[in-house]
Write a structure and sequence with these properties.
homodimer, alpha/beta, Rossmann fold, 6-phosphogluconate dehydrogenase C-terminal fold
């Protein structure tokens, strides 16, 4: 089928690469307001050609909206307006509540499948895209009952080709869960990076001491602010809750540290070791 | 030369493996109060035999003390007491101030080289040990002027065989730097793990959503509490400072989140992106 990718970054680009490889996409159109990214995506043969948005939409059987979540919420209604009656549209946003609300009363709501493939790296843009990004990863579809059976079946064909494991969840539940399991990790990493960059102003060469542990915890601080600022804004309520709990735990730890209560600190760490249960490696 | 390793864990075990491979250690004696670890280290041929501490020390040219930092500070004086006059002793502790103080007035202080190879994984024990752990990593030697030229030269021969890059630093400076660049990462990771494990009690299956970003930031929460509780205790002052700054940044972020000031949040993330400069991958 003919596929349009709006937003030729890591996620949209990687989807395009795999959908072509798997024979699901026979023709790929790209839409990107960043001209350099658009040209790069053609050069890398991620898409066949760049088209004006409305032309691409009217010609496509399947549309992937893979742009920052604020832009997704703003653009989706007009995307649905522009597609033909058989076209299926998905988004890939890391927040779902606001996007779902923006689509609730759209006359073509049933042609839309709200989705969130939980995959990514700290890199962005078409050069970061690669085949296999989604393999074995979890994909969350929200409000499945608002999509038509045909739209859902088409979307699942795409998700299966990407080797995603699709599960279903309500938007609020989704946003709460990802606040803890993804968004909080990004905040902790950005601010850990900030803390150490700050101290570097006084302590030269401090990064000579950085080991692999530091690299691992701070890796996400390389992520794109353009992508993440809107996610944090849209998920401010749940992320705020998660942050409150995290800060509370840090303050408790600091109090125990001041009291030199190593036994209590040991106990907290032993409990946190339970994370082994949920991490594969 | 004949080498004794006190503490047959990840660090001591990995040193033994490489020193044998490089021909630096011709005979390796192990000392470990954990009998299972001791037996495992012999089984894995990490050391040739387990000996009582004093026997091992009296027979050795080189001694590696690789046990938790509280035990290191307590044990080092008696280790120096027991070795012959030509024997060189190193420790590998992640804090240096207290250990240095414990050794200041020891009559054999010049036979001791205080060191901290910044290497490790989240795993522990002799089964976690491997050749190559130290390759290209930074090693910090403190108070080099308190070691004899001969002791320093012998230790450097060992560090070079391990392919460590050795630099020199005062104990206070060392402890401050590692508080920010290593210890804080571990605290942030342990408490991120705790936060998400806590919420799991209410939100079942939340870990189905965990992606590689979460895994990366929380990896260090698998680390050994026996090793880390004494490090945090010994470095409570500097770690407390680092934690204070980190918490301050998190609270500022939370305030901006509540204000929906995405522009300010974007700016913080853009600044944190500067971490790319110091991370190789």
């Amino acid at each position: 089928m003919k596929v349009t990718v709006i937003g030729l970054g890591l996620i949209g680009g990687s989807m395009a690469i795999t959908l072509r490889k798997e024979g699901v996409a026979t023709e790929l159109f790209g839409v990107d307001r960043n001209e350099a990214n658009a040209a790069k995506a053609v050069e890398l043969q991620i898409v066949d050609k760049i088209l004006p948005e409305n032309e691409a939409l009217s010609k496509s059987d399947f549309v992937i909206v893979s742009i920052p979540v604020n832009a997704t919420a703003a653009l989706l209604p007009s995307v649905l307006d522009a597609v033909s009656d058989h076209t299926v549209v998905i988004d890939v946003g890391s927040t779902k509540n606001l996007i779902s609300k923006a689509m609730t009363n759209h006359p073509k709501r049933m042609q839309f499948v709200a989705s969130h493939p939980i995959a990514g790296t700290e890199y962005s843009g078409p050069t970061a895209a690669f085949h296999g990004l989604f393999e074995g990863k979890t994909n969350i579809v929200c409000e499945r009952e608002k999509s038509s059976e045909r739209a859902l079946a088409t979307a699942l064909k795409v998700f299966d080709a990407l080797k995603l494991n699709t599960i279903y969840m309500e938007p609020q539940e989704h946003d709460k869960h990802v606040a803890y399991i993804s968004h909080l990790s990004h905040v902790s990493s950005f601010l850990l990076g900030q803390t150490v960059l700050d101290i570097e102003k006084d302590e030269k060469n401090i990064f000579d001491l950085a080991g692999s542990g530091f690299a691992s915890t701070v890796r996400l601080a390389k992520s794109s602010p353009d992508m993440w600022a809107p996610i944090f804004e849209q998920n401010a309520e749940y992320l705020g809750q998660a942050l409150t709990e995290y800060i509370m735990h840090l303050q408790k730890f600091q109090y125990l540290l001041m009291k030199k209560d190593s036994q209590a600190i040991h106990k907290i760490m032993t409990q946190a070791n339970d994370i082994k249960r949920v991490l594969k490696n």
